[in-house]
Amino acid sequence: MLSGVILFNHQDSKWIHGFFEVAFFVGNALVMLIYSSLIVRWFKVCLVFVMAISLIALWPLKLITVFYAEWISLLMITINYLQEIKLPKILLKNE
Domain segments of the chain: what residues? Predict the structure, then answer.
């Protein structure tokens, strides 16, 4: 989905870019929630909430541009992956 967001410019291919953008946001949110352990699910819900706020700020409110909404989403995904990498190491170290 990210490749579709990258390949189709939001100014030239508005609908195609928008489709891939929504699929990217929703797909990442679902992956974060479905494949998270119960221990960190609250944290993933917070990340998805921030992604949802960026979408609301983008479309109905028009407070931010597509660029910032996509980067907020990428930041939340990066935080998710960093948490996935560090948490098992921290849990194993405490045992």
Answer: 2-94
